Amino acid sequence: MKTPILVPLILLLGITLTTSTGQYQFGDIIAFERTCVGDKTVYKHYAIYVGPSTGIDVGQGDNDIYHLTGKGCMVSEAKFGKLNDVKKTSKVLKDNYLDDHGYKMKYDKGFEDQVKKRIGDTRGQWSFYRLFNNNCEQFATQIRYGVPSLQQKGTMAESVLKGKESATKVLENIAKHMTMETQCPFTDG
């Protein structure tokens, strides 16, 4: 007699786990783990989940994410896209990591309004991509929390970020020398 009761209970538990683990809510940060040979995550690409089925219209149409995406020559555009198109071979996960670090914002109607406003303010904007101060992670955390953050937790890039001050100086020096070279007249002979 216990078996007929256990089967529906187990099925109900399985259905509950399946529907809750793969679901995203409007404003969630989605991380796409970009890996190389093996299973090492080199870096994460970040986006905001807006979903066509959230009931919140921010102009996304049938797109389900909003992100900063490259357009060649280090130029980025804030735009809507499809999670599956961006996913490719990446592992995809919800990554609201600042929720546990003092930036936790209660997810209520006010929060949705703030995210909608930030999306509206940035939609379609073009900008120069900067590794340390204008990238997809900072963009996503700015949209969700109003605070840009760059951590790349659990990736190979995280160790580079720990030395970001010295790396920034090296990159600034390289940029300075490249600029000087392009302004110098070259002569043959």
What is the element layout, followed by pairings?
Blueprint: H1 2-21, E1 29-35, E2 41-49, E3 65-70, E4 75-81, H2 83-87, E5 91-94, H3 109-122, E6 126-128, H4 136-145, H5 157-162, H6 164-183
Antiparallel strand pairs: 1-2, 1-5, 2-3, 3-4, 4-6
Helix pairs in contact: 3-4
Structure description:
- The protein is α+β, with helices and mostly antiparallel strands.
- It is built from 6 helices and 6 strands.
- The chain has helices at residues 2-21, 83-87, 109-122, 136-145, 157-162, 164-183, and strands at residues 29-35, 41-49, 65-70, 75-81, 91-94, 126-128.
- The longest helix has 20 residues, at 2-21.
- It starts with a helix and ends in a 6-residue tail after the last helix.
Rg over CA atoms, rounded to whole Å, is: 21 Å
Total beta strands: 6
Q: How is the CATH topology named? A: endopeptidase fold (from Nostoc punctiforme)
What class would the helix/strand composition place it in?
A: alpha+beta
The largest β sheet comes out as: 6 strands, antiparallel
The strand line-up of the biggest sheet is 5-1-2-3-4-6
Main CATH class: Alpha Beta
Termini separation: 97 Å
SSE order: HEEEEHEHEHHH
CATH architecture: Alpha-Beta Complex
How many H/I helical runs? 6
Helical residues, percent: 25-40%
Number of domains: 1
CATH superfamily: endopeptidase domain like (from Nostoc punctiforme)
| Large-scale geometry | globular
> Which percent band covers the strand fraction?
15-25%
